[in-house]
Amino acid sequence: MQLFQAPPITRFDLNFSLFGFQVRVSPFFWLIALLFASGSRNLLHILLLIIVIFLSILLHELGHAFTLRSMEQESQIVLYQGGGLTIPEERSWGYSVARVGLSPAQDVLVAVSGAGAGFLMVLLLTIIVYFFGGTVSMAFLFGFIPFPQLFFPLGGSILSIFLGAFVSVNIFWGVFNLLPVNPLDGSTVMRHILQHFDPVNGYRKTLWVSVICGALVAFASLVWGQLYIAFLFGYLAFQSFQAVRR
After folding, report:
1. Given 3, 9, 122, 131, which is the most exposed site by the fewest CB atoms within 10 A?
2. Residue 229: how many CA atoms within 13 Å on its side-chain side?
3. Based on the structure, what is the number of domains in the chain?
4. Does the residue 187 lie in any domain?
5. Sign, Cα dihedral of 211, 193, 75, 48
């Protein structure tokens, strides 16, 4: 099984429909979410963080899916060990099937819309918290990444913990996906920029950017003791290097 490919369908998958989009959640997704949440020793906090990770990544993929729908392209969502995938659906085309072709500008818009959905929700929640007299401070996500922590004056500490984690995870996941590391969304943006200025070697340059950026993030994560993130970006950098050689 490839790390960044949708896993095979199993009887343990969670399947549901949301806003007309079919959503499939692989059991591997819950394992990775538990891995990230297990840094806390409080069982309630672990459960809250797993729910937050699920909702945040689902929101990210819905951003992609709604943008594709605005371009008359339906899609389905898969949450799996690599986070999430929004997979365009094929449409009838004569006696065959095909996918709607996107222009470079449309492709870039789809790529950034996932992070954009998360950032927009963060802004909305921050405004709501301030409106009700709440406060914002800094907290450290995964032990080393500083992000805003919201404290909501209504609903008790559990709601404040939930909102703070939701804001932090959405910022982290958005920034994470905008890095120019293949196959993340940021690499799609980088590819179109480089191919615009260099149609012949633009894609090859994109892969080299992916190799360098992925290796740097892997090294930094290893220094900070984040072994899974180090492994993840090291794997992506190696995949990009193999693609360059091919």
Report:
1. 131
2. 20
3. 1
4. yes
5. positive
The pLDDT of residue 96 is 58
Rg of the chain over all Cα atoms, to the nearest angstrom: 19
Residues 206/187, Cβ–Cβ less than 8 Å: yes
Question: Do the domain assignments include residue 78?
Answer: no
Count of residues making up the chain: 246
Both tokens of residue 82?
A: 């690599």
Residue 200 lies in a domain: yes
Full-model pTM: 0.88
State yes or no: pLDDT of 166 exceeds 60: yes
Structural domain that includes position 235: 179-241
Residues 34-79: pLDDT tens digits?
A: 988 877 677 888 898 899 999 999 999 999 999 999 998 999 999 9
Q: Strands 96-98 and 91-93: what pairing? A: antiparallel
- Residue 211 within a domain: yes
Q: What is the pLDDT of residue 1?
A: 45
Question: pLDDT (tens digit, 9 = 90+) per residue, 115-164?
Answer: 999 999 999 988 888 787 777 666 655 554 555 666 666 666 788 788 88
